[in-house]
Design goal:
188 residues, alpha+beta, eight-stranded mixed β-sheet, 6 helices, 29% strand
């Protein structure tokens, strides 16, 4: 059984574990937001396909069950329309997880990336006893994404070099961190 639950309530939305049942809705969400995702996301350089999305969701479900990473779709309760996706990834030291997120174009400016990130930070500290730090990283030119971590009280740690793998990227990434001892889940 995975360490994180399949469903994370998050106020006006909920985070649901990736499942292949989400294939059509996730394909649609990515396709409708491709112009905004393409500058920042290497996986958004070509239009999504049902076959490709199924493969991504299948691997994501396997990784979730194996506690390698935990990917969720963001939806309104009672709806299957995907508003975005967010997840926790093990990309650094074993005591650290990184949050990734994106919100579909027609659902932006509602604070959903902030809500999802708050929920995932709380979940990481509640369900992953080995995690002492949660990070959020983004390209230094991605101003909209960079607005999320300070709203949650994350501390800027500086910038790191990162290979450019999408057309809007600068190769300099901002790194924000939250320590377990400093997290107050009701903040924000």
């Amino acid at each position: 059984m995975a360490l994180l639950p399949d469903l994370l309530p998050a106020g006006p939305v909920e985070l649901r574990r990736w499942r292949t049942a989400c294939t059509a809705a996730l394909t649609d969400a990515v396709a409708s937001s491709l112009p905004e995702l393409r500058p920042w996301m290497p996986w958004a350089q070509e239009p999504p396909t049902v076959t490709g999305t199924t493969q991504v969701l299948t691997q994501g479900d396997i990784n979730f069950g194996a506690d390698k990473e935990w990917q969720f779709v963001v939806v309104e309760p009672g709806s299957d329309r995907i508003l975005g996706a967010a997840g926790l990834h093990r990309r650094g030291p074993p005591d650290t997880v990184e949050i990734g997120y994106w919100i579909r174009t027609d659902a932006t400016r509602r604070g959903l990336a902030t809500i999802a990130s708050r929920t995932l930070t709380t979940a990481a500290f509640a369900h992953l006893p080995d995690v002492t730090t949660v990070e959020i990283r983004m390209d230094s030119l991605n101003a909209r994404s960079a607005a999320v971590p300070p709203r949650l009280g994350f501390r800027p740690e500086g910038e790191v070099d990162q290979p450019v793998d999408a057309p809007g990227q600068s190769g300099r990434w901002l790194v924000w961190t939250m320590a377990r001892a400093d997290w107050a889940p009701d903040d924000g």
